[in-house]
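Hello Y.,

Per our agreement to keep a running log of every chain we model this quarter, I'm adding this entry. I've kept the format consistent with earlier entries: sequence first, then predicted structure.
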Amino acid sequence: MQALRSAQALTSAAAHAAVGAAVARAAELGVAINACVVDAGGNQIAFLRGDGAFLPSGKIARDKAYTAAGFGAPTGALYDALAGDAPVLTGIAAQPGVALFQGGLPIQSNGEIVGGIGVSGASAEQDEICALAGLQAIGLAQD
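Predicted structure for the entry above:
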């Protein structure tokens, strides 16, 4: 029996590059967002508030990142997957720090979850576009 396994870890430089790229993409779209990157354990590594971004959206961005990392799935896809089971959907959505709408993406490397990125402040679709820009900037966008 193997007692330990090695794990990959997202660097702070990559996390900062990802939130910077997400905020830059938002500016190109003409919107203001907050972006957050967490590690595989849900611990915040980087956060950036775009100029004029809504203050409450900062927590929502963090919740989206935490949810994507914790469940290993895009936050919008989680809602869709749970929509057919109302009690489970309600129970999971009621947990602290869980966000079940677009804008949170898991960060994966070689099939391993290394973190999550969350974006909030624009439309759900724009949030997702900006989160994807963050992953593309660090070469970890999933196909």
